[in-house]
Amino acid sequence: MARSGSRRRFPTYFLYGEAPRPVTGPLLNVETIEARSARHHWKIEPHRHHVLHQLVLVLRGCGVTMADGISAQYRPPALVVTPAGAVHGFEFEPGTTGYVISLSDDLLRELIRQEPGVAALFSRPLTLELRRDDLRDTDLARSAPMLARESQRGDAGHRMALHGWLQVLLGNVLRLVDDLPNPADPAVGQRRSLLARFVGMIERRFRNNQSVPGYAAALGVSQSRLRSVCLSLTGQSPIQLIHARVLLEAKRQLHYTDSAVGEIATSLGIEDAAYFTRFFTRRVGMSPREFRRRGPEVINTGGL
Description:
Elements: E1 28-32, H1 33-37, E2 43-47, E3 52-60, E4 63-67, E5 70-74, E6 78-82, E7 88-92, E8 97-104, H2 105-114, H3 117-121, E9 126-129, H4 132-136, H5 140-151, H6 158-177, H7 186-205, H8 212-219, H9 223-234, H10 238-256, H11 261-267, H12 273-284, H13 288-294, E10 297-300
Parallel strand pairs: 5-10
Antiparallel strand pairs: 1-8, 2-7, 3-6, 3-8, 4-5, 4-7, 6-9
Helix pairs in contact: 5-6, 7-9, 10-13, 11-12
């Protein structure tokens, strides 16, 4: 999925090819991969959704995904997770089968309140090949078509059944993508809830150059408590998680806009462009200008 030499602004859609529109309340859309991709010759050009998060389950057919400047080649079965705001695209093998599940912010927040692990699942773009034996050991391949079937109905009990199948599907996704601690343990639940709140707060405030003590105070916990939870559940400290989000936005703007490095720094709450360049270079291993010049990276995914 090559990028041309000049940067361009990528379109924003509600669903691919559809004009943006406001969304109020929980919204769920489920469709087969073929339903939208076949009429676009199995190629979904890079774009973004401001209000929809997406999970794609590929059951048959190889392909390539692109998200935030990184392309990943996969073999089925595979899972692709794309949070709202990420620039992403797909090249599917003709005849690919699977499902695309799109969730609004409000619905995602409802799910996170019930299961904080969902926040981590949708915190970053992700492409994973799955082992078929692992897939058979879960109900994911069975729950996806049931969710799609229920999404086409509108009779009595529809809303309850639809959300029930969605919860079953996401529960099985979590089992596949992460070795989560026992959710029945109240202490574990509290730690995961705090992490979900912190990740959500980072998303809202990462442009403000807020300090870790500021985040801890806003969350109503000590810095040591926040650090302990972040390290135990993600292996990263609070400042590493904050910096990762800042770097992700910096990379997006370097790849997908023509903004000057100084303008990007200012948009991220960093007034000193030289400091931003040093910050970026230390963590990425190259300067912002070199990163922009090289363009997107291509990687191959591995099985779990």
